[in-house]
Every structure is written in structure tokens, then in C-alpha cells.
Amino acid sequence: MSGRYSFSLFVIALLCAVSASALNSGTDIFVPAAARGAGQRGSFWMLDAYIFNPGPESASVIVYWLPRWGENTNPVNAPFIVEPGETLVLEDMIFNTFGLEAAQGAVRFASNNRIVVSARSYNLKDGVTFGQGWEGIPQSVALGPGDETDIVGLVQNSRFRTNFMLIDTEGTGNGTIVELSLRDTDGVEIGSGTYELGHYEPQLYLITHLGVQSFENATLHVEVTQGTAIAVAAKVDNAATSGDPTTLEAWIPAGPASSPDGVYQLALYDSTDYATGGRAEFENRELTEINATYSNFDKDAGACAYVYRMAVTFSPSLSLEQLATGASFTVDYPSSGEILYTVTMTLNDNLGLEGTVAAVGSDFTGDEAGCNGTFPDLDLLGGKSTN
């Protein structure tokens, strides 16, 4: 087996290992449903949140309160520092952190380093609590244009009611459009709806908003056509005096997450299968940084036997559409010349990168004069290692 295929198998194994955990770390995390105040049947709802820092460095975390039914371009927020290995506990956070006695919305946790977030929404009644857990969902696993998922276990009848929640996670102001299809156990559509979300806007609806008043069991199919969004649901027991809720979450692939955002490990191969490595990082579905070692040992043997660092932070970042046709940038090398690189990348269904790196050198002198002119193309292969 060649080194090229060994690398690919290693990346696939790593992807599966990364996605195996229930809670996922990230630097931009959402709890999509949160409330404080009186509910149905004499209930009173509150929210506790837990922020864990799994990394070796302090995490500067800003917690944003995002009210429902409107854009959140300048939301109220509170900063915290979470040290390595520590867990920050925010009890009754809507009141104690934001000073709100009654509110409905969602919570965003933005950090300079990776964190893990979980939360508990609960009904406090007669000194006893009944509640449900919410996983903090990283923006990196939000649905993007063309992505789809499903939420199972929905019921709407005299015994149970179901709510569904949507939130825009892109925060660009361009808006998000979500198409919903409610399907019975045979996969037949029984209700549908289209929802538009503004800047970091959360929304919550009773499932009857999709046009069906009662059903025994159903699945909610979710598809995003613009922007990025997270969708979840909750099934609530009408008969229980507690108003007992059950969290219903959407599925994501068992291997990589559905979003391209995150860090990729790269390998660049020349015609002899000699490889050098590096990394690339995507944010908001665009390439923000590439840092790799570029070798050129098959360029006119002996004429330019050098290795160069191809390290660039892109501003503005490069879209997947730009990368598909080839994106060019120049790197200057002090006391030497410069190389014009053209990187072509496409993303496959398993979040693997494939492409080429072309290079043209200029202004090299002396022993490096052989580096002027066109280099043979290198093959680029990569796989997502972290969200």
C-alpha cells in the first residue's frame, strides 16, 4: 500500500473517532431553546448551563442572549474566563446572567478556544424540578445550503404535544431559509412549511403550525436552502402535572459533520509520490488559512531542489466556488524570490479535500535561479480532523 492511501485511511479513522462523542467541542456553540417564566399547566421554566474547558489554555467565553422572533444584531452578552479543566456553572442563567425575569430565546457561546457546553431546561413546581437536557451544538455542524436532516419521535394528540425550534447560526444578516416536511411513519408528507430566519434569530412553533392538527407518530424532515441553521424539537407530556419534556435532536453523519467548517490535515504529492504535509482551516464554509510545506523535487532534477513554506491567511476568505476553479496568491520569500501559487480544491461527500497546487517562481537568483518558471503540479489530498 502506498503512502498516499495510508494517509487517507488514517484521516477516515480519525474522523470517525472525532464524531463518536455525544457532546462536541467548538468555539461557536448554540443552545437553541431556552426560556424563563410561566408555562402551561402552572409550570415555571428556568435554565442552567455548564461550560467546560477541555483545552490546555484559558478560554475567554462571551455568552449571548438571543430573544425569539427577531434579528439579534447587538444582543446582550456577558464575558467569562474558564480555565483549563474547569467547568463554569451558570444556574438560572437567564435571570442571574442577563437579569431577565421572563424571556424566551436561545443562547450562543463564543470562545477564543474550544469549549464544551450543555444545559438543562426545567420546570420548578412545588419545590420539585422536572426537565430536559440540551446539547450545546457547534456552529460547525449546522445545516448549510443543500444540507438536510430529520428529527424523529414527534407526536401531537391528547396525550402529547410537540414544539420545534430553529435558529440562524450564520449571523451574516443575509438570512436563512429552512424547508420543513412532516412525514408519517410510511414517509408520506402530512404537513410542510417554509421559514425565514434573520441574523441569529431563534424561532419556536407548535408542530400544528405545519398544517396538521393531530397525529400519532411522525418525522420532521429539515432542509436548508440558504444560510445555516440548527433545528431541534421537544415532545411534552400533556397528561403529566410536570409537563414532562423530551428533547428530540436531529441526526448528523456518524463520520464527519455535515459542515465543511473546521481544520483539515493536508498532504501534497509530487510525481514520485513524495509527500509533504500541512493544514487548512475553513470557517463559515470558506477557506481562511492554509499552512503547508511545498516541495518541488521533481522540477528539473537538481535545478531547484528546495522546500518552501506555503503559509497564507486569506482576507477576504476564499469560497468553495472560488477554490473549485482555482484561487491564486503570491508568497514572497525574503532574500530570494516569490512564488505564485494556484490552489484548486473540491470537497467530496465525506468532507475530504481533493485538488492540485500549481506554482510559478520568479525573481530567484544565484543557486536558486532554477526555481524561476513553472513547477509541475502537485496533487492535494486532505481530510477533516476537527470541527
Mean pLDDT score? 86
Q: Can you tell me the residue ranges where pLDDT is under 50 for at least 5 consecutive residues?
A: 1-21
Kindly state the number of beta strands. 25
CATH architecture of the largest domain: Sandwich
For the largest beta-sheet, the strand count, sense and barrel status come to: 9 strands, antiparallel
Order of helices and strands: HEEEEEHEEEEEEEEEEEEEEEHEEEEE
Helical segment tally? Answer: 3
Task: Please give the CATH class of the largest domain.
Answer: Mainly Beta
* CATH fold description of the largest domain: Hypothetical Protein Tm1070, Chain: A
Task: Tell me the radius of gyration.
Answer: 25 Å
Fraction of helical residues: under 10%
Indicate how many domains the architecture comprises.
2
Shape: elongated
Q: Kindly report how far apart the N and C termini lie.
A: 29 Å
CATH fourth-tier homologous superfamily of the largest domain:
TM1070-like
Structural class: mainly beta
Strand content bin: over 45%
